[in-house]
Amino acid sequence: MSLIRTTASKIANFIVRYASAGSKEWAQAMASELNSIENDWQALAWAFGGVRVLFSIQPSPLRSVADLDEEARKHAKRRLHAMNNGWLGTNVPLLVPIISCLSPILGIAMSRNIPGNAAQLAGYLLLIPMLYLRTREPDVPDRDDQPNLVRFYANEMSALSRNSLSFWMFLAGVLLLTCGWELEFARGLVGIGIISFFSLVMLALFLAKHVNDRRRFAQIEALLGRLPSY
Known about the structure:
Blueprint: H1 3-18, H2 24-34, H3 40-49, H4 65-84, H5 86-100, H6 102-109, H7 114-135, H8 146-161, H9 165-185, H10 188-224
């Protein structure tokens, strides 16, 4: 086997190894296809093209009701663990924007860079509803009550996956925060570029999580459709 072919195989194996659970089959299919490509350089190009699989971070598919039951139990356990962290530990993501509001409020009161501080204040306030949705204390059913655990899981994923008002408020909040930070801190194009880059990364991570929540809820709905009792 040539060095080029060996490199292509190693890249494909790396992709299969580190692909997310929901993209594992896609990675394996691309790795299998590599064996049918005769030209070494084309095989290498195919392997490099497969790197995009690593950026497709998807949850593991729910193939059966048993998978759904197991995932519902895991979700309930995570939510209970979050509750056991205490009020402060659970609400840190919510407290951050609330406390951060003090800085722009002070800036506005002192008539310092009012446009930038006003944009930051509006941005922080718009983030709060979505963060509250994700940090509120849940009413987790008993771990032996499997039907209600599944309903609880389905309801939570439904709330997180909707393009609700809180979702659009969160997006608007990130954009307003970006504008506010640029007006407050950026000096020149480099500063604006750095702030914009990190804001876009944060926004991309949030949207990726939202897309995965929607995929998961679609899987849950498909499985629950087979169970009239639910």
